[in-house]
UniProtKB/TrEMBL annotation:
Residues 70-84 have a biased composition (Basic residues). Residues 46-88 are annotated as: Disordered. Keywords: Ribonucleoprotein, Ribosomal protein. One of its GO terms (biological process) is translation. PANTHER family: 50S RIBOSOMAL PROTEIN L15, LARGE RIBOSOMAL SUBUNIT PROTEIN UL15M. Pfam families: Ribosomal_L27A. GO terms for cellular component: mitochondrial large ribosomal subunit. GO terms for molecular function: structural constituent of ribosome. It comes from Monosporascus ibericus. The lineage of its organism: Eukaryota, Fungi, Dikarya, Ascomycota, Pezizomycotina. Residues 114-190 form the Large ribosomal subunit protein uL15/eL18 domain. This is Large ribosomal subunit protein uL15/eL18 domain-containing protein. Belongs to the universal ribosomal protein uL15 family. Gene3D superfamilies: 3.100.10.10.
Length: 299
């Protein structure tokens, strides 16, 4: 419906366009158009988008509505007269008491920020990350590949074929497929223990990233003090203290930064070791397999 123009304004428009005047005709036309305004009839035609407002179901308004008499609640009982709590099971012993709970939610588990290989390659192609330098949590946060600072960063293997060039990256954790893809491309990956506070200090420039553990012993006090006097004070990165974290970063399969501390044949576990008898059995099996292969080759 076109906007309505009041009679007075329409008369002024006609006078401005038709009646003679000493001014130019263009000026009169612009003056006439400037008088026109939108009327309330446009506001009367406004409506919501389709589906924005649902029709209310009116209960107890006669049988023809389909929701009359009992209003869809049925006949008598607590379900009609009152409210039944959703976890009510009819009076039987609740299943949670019969069977118990399965598992638990670990509220102290670290929350990791996830980074996939395809997204990392996309950032490298855009020039937001330099692949010729070591990629640390600081670079990942400053390039906005990782947003909120969490307890660590985990590298995942989605888009393993997208990695084009070798990279040197250090993260908190890494999946087996991500480790395989990075090393297949000729790169290097190291997992290191971080905390939320440690990553925050790295991003702020209050700490220096390193893949070496904290030195222990009185012989390291002098070099550390000398370095502090020369370069100033920087917070040092912490080392893991829990058994699970220590075993994770001691494991060469995870490319942990503490794996160099293991002796040849030593288990990454702090408490469980491979029994000598089992090691001897494994050696015998390998020898037997080699001998069988030689026999088949001769035949």
């Amino acid at each position: 419906m076109p906007p309505r123009i009041p009679p007075r304004l329409a008369a002024q428009c006609c006078r401005a366009t038709v009646g003679p005047s000493p001014q130019s005709s263009l000026a009169n036309l612009f003056a006439a158009f400037s008088i026109q305004t939108r009327n309330a009839s446009i506001l009367a035609n406004l409506s919501d988008n389709p589906g924005a407002q649902q029709k209310r179901i009116r209960l107890g308004r006669g049988p023809s509505s389909g929701k009359g008499k009992t209003s869809g609640r049925g006949h008598k009982g607590q379900k009609q007269h009152g409210k039944v709590r959703p976890w009510f099971q009819g009076g039987q012993t609740p299943l949670i008491f019969q069977r118990g709970r399965l598992g638990f939610e670990n509220l102290r588990s670290p929350v990791m920020a996830e980074v996939n290989l395809d997204k990392l390659q996309e950032w490298i192609d855009a020039g937001r990350i330099d692949p010729t330098k070591q990629i640390t949590p600081k670079e990942l946060h400053q390039s906005n590949l990782v947003g909120t600072i969490k307890d660590g960063i985990k590298l995942l293997g989605r888009g393993a074929d997208a990695l084009k060039q070798p990279i040197d990256i250090i993260v908190s954790r890494a999946s087996a497929s991500a480790i395989e893809s990075v090393e297949k491309a000729g790169g290097k990956i190291v997992t290191r223990y971080y905390t939320k506070q440690a990553i925050k200090r790295l991003v702020e420039g209050k700490s220096v990233n390193t893949d070496m553990p904290l030195p222990t012993g009185p012989e390291h006090v002098g070099p550390v003090l000398k370095q502090v006097r020369q370069k100033g004070f920087f917070y040092r990165l912490p080392d893991p203290t829990s058994r699970w974290d220590i075993e994770y970063y001691r494991d060469p399969a995870h490319r942990g930064y503490l794996s160099h501390m293991l002796k040849p044949g030593e288990s990454p576990s702090l408490y469980f070791k491979v029994p000598p008898a089992q090691l001897a059995k494994q050696v015998k099996k390998k020898k037997a397999q080699k001998e069988e292969a030689k026999l088949w080759d001769k035949l």
